[in-house]
Design a protein that fits this description.
mainly alpha, 15 helices, elongated
């Protein structure tokens, strides 16, 4: 009730601000997380919210509570934001970096303490102000993040490729040692839609090149892959699995540009 009455007052007096601040701060000590979050949502954007109340909410350990105030509160000062940024979590910093405007003081602290997610938001933020040299520092850090992410992604791809090569070699060895049937291995790879791996296995046992195998699999002449299957003595179910993969690939290739895949 007190909040509803206070929120409707466009220009509360200093006495009204002090009284409401005392009531709100006393109540916040006793409220649970959900209640504090509900209260924060109600008052976050309130231009007349007493600064001590906004500050208490913005410093809450629960980002569900602090985040909305850090994003929206118009009463938090630059000094408030800078001080909070010095000790709060990365989630709090992300919320702060999503304010409609960020002062030079707050930006400096965000640059010093912010992780990747904070820096990306700052880099795209049209309302963030920077001290001389800060923009360059941000650009260098974001560039380094991008390079590191690309290196990590490439490393993952390289490891995955090596793992698949090792798997294919092991499958070929299993067939050669009669631990597995060629039909079993080819059906497995075809079901998984692994064209290059399938071509590698076909080429190994037909003693042809992988390029020849890929041409047989996906060339316009469908009799070519049938000839390979004859030479390798593949069973009808295995042949059907190969044809199914071939057909799906060719249909995808021939799908008009812009059509949903």
């Amino acid at each position: 009730m007190a909040t509803e009455v206070y929120a409707r007052t466009e220009r509360p007096s200093e006495a009204a601000r002090r009284d409401y601040s005392a009531i709100a701060e006393h109540a916040l000590v006793r409220l649970g997380t959900e209640e504090r979050a509900a209260y924060a949502r109600r008052v976050a954007a309130l231009p007349t919210l007493p600064r001590p109340v906004a500050r208490r909410l913005a410093e809450d350990e629960e980002v569900e509570i602090a985040g909305i105030v850090l994003r929206l509160s118009p009463v938090l000062t630059d000094e408030d934001l800078a001080e909070i940024a010095l000790t709060c979590s990365q989630d709090h910093l992300i919320a702060m970096a999503e304010r409609s405007a960020i002062s030079e003081i707050a930006t400096e602290v965000l640059l010093d303490r912010g992780g990747d997610a904070v820096l990306r938001r700052l880099a795209m933020h049209s309302g963030a102000r920077f001290t001389p040299g800060a923009r360059e520092r941000l650009s260098q850090r974001v560039l380094r993040i991008a390079v590191e992410a690309a290196d990590q992604k490439n490393s993952v791809r390289v490891r995955a490729a090596r793992d698949r090569i090792g798997e294919v070699r092991a499958l070929i060895a299993d067939v050669e040692a009669h631990r597995k049937q060629l039909d079993e291995v080819i059906s497995q790879i075809a079901r998984q839609d692994r064209a290059v791996d399938l071509a590698t296995i076909l080429a190994a046992f037909a003693q042809r090149s992988i390029a020849d195998a890929l041409q047989a699999l996906f060339g316009t002449d469908h009799t070519s892959i049938e000839a390979w299957a004859d030479d390798l003595g593949l069973t009808p179910p295995t042949r059907a699995q190969i044809v199914q993969m071939r057909t799906a690939r060719l249909n995808q290739r021939n799908k008009p540009t812009g059509e949903n895949t």
